[in-house]
Amino acid sequence: MALNKNKDLKKYYSISEVAEQFGVAESLLRYWEKEFPNIAPRKSGRNVRQYTTEDIEEVRVVYNLLKVRGMKIAAARETLRKNKRGAMDSSDIISRLQSVRSELMEIRKELGDL
Question: In three state form, how does the secondary structure of 9-66 look?
Answer without folding.
Answer: HCCCECHHHHHHHHCCCHHHHHHHHHHCCCCCCEECCCCCEEECHHHHHHHHHHHHHH
